[in-house]
């Protein structure tokens, strides 16, 4: 079976709709046909300041949401990054193969370091994409299902794999980003030209998987639209309405055109009310299941530990080949 690898940062109590649509819903479909590795990337999370207690909680909560949304720990290897030391070890090796200029061109670093200021932005934040390359390459992943914002990082991963292979001999599979057309970027409900993100200035446009129904309802009903009053998909002219239509379409599995038809001649309020229902239908069971999973920590930790064992085996094999190829004696 071909291999996929993907991950999310445990940097919030709850995943958001962008994570769910851009990544998680793809993962659950793909796990049937691939040898799938899904990681909670807590080493990535600490590239910006984290409260230790929150980080531990959020790591479990993220894993629980993967399972609640449909990742089956019996089919997929769902593990926590820090429980597999090879990630940090391979990242070091790849650091030595990455050009300073090359790393400097990563746009996500530029955005984030601007937010924190160059004195407080850590070196870890700078080398973040290199750790991500290590994640992917350790499992010899063929495909990396992610949202649009991760494309550049997967490109860097490909460059590093190719460079390593040509310098030290064939060692890594060169992975492809798998980015779903049309849903790879879900936009903020208050600012529908910016991507939905946990680091947005306000949470008013951020739909969280674990938020109570009334909170989500309020956010959707207040979503920014336009004053043209026709329900029609047009990304350039009608970004707000188009974003609502996209979300509606992905969560119901219906084409956008069928939703346009259903709401033809009706107001934005109706579309929003419809969407409130669709989102609630999708997230209510995920919330319930997440709570159940978090109520039995010991069991969740056991699941994660046993997945980490498998991950350690696969990753350890790749790391051995890397060390041998480079001449690092063990
Ligand atoms: P993270 O935690 O920021 O986001 C997790 C996943 O959600 C996707 N995503 C979105 N998709 C559509 N619309 C949005 N508004 C939106 N916001 C987020 C992201 O593209 C991502 O797929 N660097 C990664 C984590 C990572 C990783 C990896 C991913 C570390 N190692 C190896 C793949 C493979 C990140 O910060 O994702």
UniProtKB/TrEMBL annotation:
First-listed, main subcellular location of the protein, grouped into a coarse class: cytoplasm
Catalyses which reaction(s): tRNA(Trp) + L-tryptophan + ATP = L-tryptophyl-tRNA(Trp) + AMP + diphosphate + H(+)
GO terms for MF: tryptophan-tRNA ligase activity
Binding, ATP: 9-11, 18-19, 147-149, 186, 195-199
Pfam families: tRNA-synt_1b (PF00579)
TM stretches of this protein: none
Residue positions binding L-tryptophan: 135
InterPro entries: aa-tRNA-synth_I_CS, aa-tRNA-synth_Ic, Rossmann-like_a/b/a_fold, Trp-tRNA-ligase, Trp-tRNA-ligase_bac-type, Trp-tRNA_synthetase
Enzyme class: ligase
Entry-linked SUPFAM superfamilies: Nucleotidylyl transferase
Origin: domain of life: Bacteria
Positions occupied by motif 'KMSKS' region: 195-199
E.C. designation(s): 6.1.1.2
Entry keyword set: Aminoacyl-tRNA synthetase, ATP-binding, Cytoplasm, Ligase, Nucleotide-binding, Protein biosynthesis
Subcellular location: Cytoplasm
Family the entry assigns: Belongs to the class-I aminoacyl-tRNA synthetase family.
Primary role: Catalyzes the attachment of tryptophan to tRNA(Trp).
Subunit-level organization: Homodimer.
PANTHER family according to UniProt: TRYPTOPHAN--TRNA LIGASE, MITOCHONDRIAL
Name of the protein in question: Tryptophan--tRNA ligase
Organism (species): Leucobacter rhizosphaerae
Gene this protein is translated from: trpS
């Amino acid at each position: 079976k071909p291999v996929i690898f993907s991950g999310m940062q445990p940097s919030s109590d709850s995943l958001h709709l962008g994570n769910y649509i851009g990544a998680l819903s793809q993962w659950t479909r793909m796990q049937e046909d691939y040898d799938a590795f899904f990681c909670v990337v807590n080493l990535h999370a600490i590239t910006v300041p984290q409260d230790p207690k929150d980080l531990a909680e959020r790591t479990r909560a993220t894993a629980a949401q993967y399972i609640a949304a449909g990742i089956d720990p019996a089919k997929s290897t769902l593990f926590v990054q820090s429980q597999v030391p090879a990630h940090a070890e391979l990242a070091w090796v790849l650091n030595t193969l990455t050009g300073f200029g090359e790393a400097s061109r990563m746009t996500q670093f530029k955005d984030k370091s601007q937010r924190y200021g160059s004195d407080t932005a850590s070196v870890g934040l700078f080398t973040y994409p290199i750790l991500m390359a290590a994640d992917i390459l350790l499992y010899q992943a063929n495909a990396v299902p992610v949202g649009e914002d991760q494309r550049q990082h997967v490109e860097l991963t490909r460059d590093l794999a190719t460079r390593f292979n040509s310098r030290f001999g064939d060692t890594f599979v060169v992975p492809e980003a798998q980015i779903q057309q049309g849903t790879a970027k879900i936009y903020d409900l208050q600012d529908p030209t910016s991507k939905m993100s946990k680091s947005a200035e306000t949470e008013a446009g951020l739909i969280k998987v674990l938020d109570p129904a009334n909170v989500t309802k309020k956010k959707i009903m207040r979503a920014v639209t336009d004053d043209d009053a026709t329900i029609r998909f047009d990304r350039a002219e009608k970004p707000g309405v188009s974003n609502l239509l996209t979300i509606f379409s992905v969560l119901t599995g219906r084409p956008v055109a069928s939703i346009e038809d259903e709401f033809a001649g009706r107001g934005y309020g109706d579309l929003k009310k419809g969407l409130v229902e669709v989102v609630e239908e999708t997230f209510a069971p995920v919330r319930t299941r997440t709570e159940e999973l978090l109520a039995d920590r010991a069991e969740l930790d056991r699941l994660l530990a046993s997945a980490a064992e498998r991950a350690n085996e696969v990753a350890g094999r790749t790391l051995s080949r890397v060390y041998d190829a480079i001449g690092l004696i063990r």
